[in-house]
Amino acid sequence: MAMESRSVKIEATKKLFKGKKFRVAVIGCGGIAQTHLEAYKNIPEVEIVAGVDIDPERLKIMEEKWGLPKKALFTDWKEMLKKIKPDGVDVCTPNGVHCAPVVDACNAGCHAMVEKPMAMNPAECEKMIAAAKKNKVKLAVGFQQRYSPNTQALINARDKGQFGKIMFVKCQALRRRGIPNWGVFGRKELQGGGPMIDIGVHILECAYEFMGAPKPVAASGNVWTYFGNKPSKTRCSWPDWDHKTYTVEDLAIGQIRFDNGAILQIESSFVAHIPKNSIMNFTALGEKGGCSWENGEIYCDQNDLMVNMTPTFISNQDGWGSLFKIKLQNWVDACTKGTQLGAPGEAGLAVQKMLDGIYRSAAAGKEVTIK
Fold it and tell me: Which of the chain's ends, N or C, has fewer CB atoms near its CB within 10 Å?
């Protein structure tokens, strides 16, 4: 009966959008929204019908570059929802302005895509999920790395028993000198944190997906600020960040314990003294094998030999832009065809609980429980 009911819902959803465009309003028209808009160009069933931003220069870009008329440009998303009545909203605002527009959109009957991290804390995530469920709309979180060919290849190997029980995963999201010199990435009150919540979330969410999404039960961690809140003469590709308003960490280290006994460790930094410009990777140790996400390598025993398996080809996807297209296509398909969401709100909540646990542990100076 459950499968039959789902099939009926899928057919009803398809019928609703048959021959019609999926009308999307973008809330927050800054840098990441531009990447979304480039991806939407390759999703023909989508029509961008409105832009919302408090910065008139960004609205000007929506008009001049993306062809939106002035009547489709707003500084208030509530006004936009009332006048435009879009099918879905794509929320690309700073983290502190994720929850409110998503909840308002869901209450207006709109589907919602929200950039990572899902919100500032688990309580906001739960509020967003509740609004989506109440109004029977789709809520997706912008976790593109779970769609990457490397992530999917390692998940496929996991499903075939290549690793056995996964015991330990180590994540790294490190930049040698990469403090953003645009936006509000250095302001804790608007972002919730620094590199851990901004770039650490990328590798954390795909590593967690690879692990099979076990239940996190405890977190420990610490954070340090030693560079970003001071002026610097060191030459780098992203100079002149606003050190006077910098209130986030430079380095965060965390450890998560799961209910199945597995451990995940994560290191994330904007200014790590490492030998290259950046590291974005996770490695895993299982009872039967291990792996590295960065190059898709698998380490195991075969024919009484210790073997390192390096793939010669994983995918011809064209990098970052392709991942955005895939994640947005997944959301659009779920909204218009009733297919499964790859990263629903519940996935965002689980990741948020781990991020929140690390920051709470750093503040408390001890391990904390994740409820």
Answer: N
What CA–CA distance (Å, rounded) separates 161 from 328?
30
Query: Across-strand partners of 91?
Result: 27, 114
Cis-peptide into 117, omega within 30 deg? yes
Count of all residues that appear for the chain in the document = 371
Angle at 72 between CA 68 and CA 73, to 5 degrees: 90
Dist CA 152 CA 314 (whole Å):
10
Can you tell me which residue has the tokens 């000007």? 60
- DSSP, collapsed to helix, strand or coil, labels residue 98 as coil
Tokens for 39, please give them.
């991806």
Over the stretch 112-156, which tens digit does the pLDDT of each residue have?
Answer: 999 999 999 999 999 999 999 999 999 999 999 999 999 999 999
pTM of the model: 0.92
Report the distance separating Cα 44 and Cα 144, nearest Å: 20
* Confidence at 6, pLDDT banded by 50, 70, 90: low
Tokens encoding 314: 């994983």
SS3 (DSSP) at 23: strand
Q: How many CB atoms lie within 10 A of CB 30?
A: 18
Task: Give the DSSP H/E element, type plus range, for residue 351.
Answer: helix 345-364
Rg from Cα positions in the chain: 21
* Rounded Cα–Cα distance for residues 244 and 247 (Å): 8
To 10 degrees, the CA torsion angle through 124, 130, 132, 135?
A: -140
